[in-house]
């Protein structure tokens, strides 16, 4: 595995010099200032590449390996104007990334909201903090703050009662914070909404069920994956996070069956998977080793992270907290063993992509992380601890 680190560009409080000290060898980044649907110009890509890699006289030793994300616009997801132009722009951006030597492109196909949490800094017993998704808090948001008309039908009576009680006990400040955590966009999310925007976006999805939404994803891939193959690029779709429907919207990349369907529908190696154990692992039926056995050859990028389910379960949805990388519901040692086997298989086949880029995904806020202005989920020390633990497992198994 190639050990990489997500860097949000020059505005990131963590610098390239800091990242060198973590022992990471590669960088995952994006042109975060550009909205979905616009072309990533060669000059802008070159500038980001130089910020990451340095100059020939003064190389940093790091390489820009993965573009995360080259975002898919809401217009493409809903197939509403100007989605055709956005696909043309996506193809142009892919050409420019390939010319700059970037090989891997991560994206997601989640409607409206990218990854979703209800609390960004829940205290842990040892004094650090973790991110959390609480289903009751989410129901409070849906039923009372967004006040989505059909929300009542989406939760069982017991959960609605819990949400009513919790809402009644919340201060205005807590309600504002909950709304901000859910819709203002977590790090890396390319869209930032207000409550009014979310309501308008929900309208745009009226009548789009799971089957149609999946067809939109396949239509998108039918346009971009053959070009990616010609350019030597690997596309990899990030799973839904959390991996179950929210706000009555369709979700189509939540488990192995979803990935099988979509990788078969456009059956090219360039149409691949971002294997995010933190997202997929929220489902009780997730089996990382079985997933890697089934679709290992299509995994182009790894997000290694762990979560632990807790609390109420309602129609397949649950609460969960982000746990230590080696703790939680996913067996990380078994996962890494299976990835190493997949890499050995690729080497034996002579594949040039035998070394799969991985990044320690998210981390707890620990020690000085709490004094450094930072992006929720992306602290320096918490992620470095995760990377160090994962690296130890890799070394032991190798
Ligand atoms: C969260 C990230 C996601 C991811 C996108 C990929 O931490 O994993 O924001 O970058 O969903 O498009």
CATH superfamily: Divalent-metal-dependent TIM barrel enzymes
Q: H/E element string?
A: EHEHEHHEEEHHHHHEHEHHEEEHEH
- The CATH C-level name is Alpha Beta
* Contiguous runs where pLDDT drops below 50 for at least 5 residues: none
Number of strands: 12
Tell me the distance between the termini: 11 Å
Query: Helix share of residues?
Result: 40-55%
* Count of spatially separate domains: 1
Number of helices: 14
How does the major sheet shape up?
A: 8 strands, parallel, barrel
The best one-word shape is globular
Structural class, from secondary structure content?
alpha/beta
CATH topology, which one?
A: TIM Barrel
Q: Approximately how much beta-strand content do the residues carry?
A: 15-25%
Bound molecules: D-mannose
Q: What's the pLDDT, averaged over the residues?
A: 96
CATH architecture: Alpha-Beta Barrel
Q: What is the CA-atom radius of gyration, in angstroms?
A: 20 Å
**Widest sheet: strand order?**
1-2-3-4-7-8-9-12
Structure in words:
The protein has 398 residues and is an alpha/beta fold. It has a single domain (2-116, 208-397), classed as TIM Barrel (Alpha-Beta Barrel). The chain is 42% helix and 17% strand. The protein has 14 helices and twelve strands. The strands form two sheets. Strands 1-2-3-4-7-8-9-12 form an eight-stranded parallel beta barrel. A four-stranded antiparallel sheet has the order 5-6-11-10. Helix 13 (332-349) packs across helix 14. D-mannose is lined by residues 68-69, 106-108, 114-115, 188-189, 238, 303, 377.
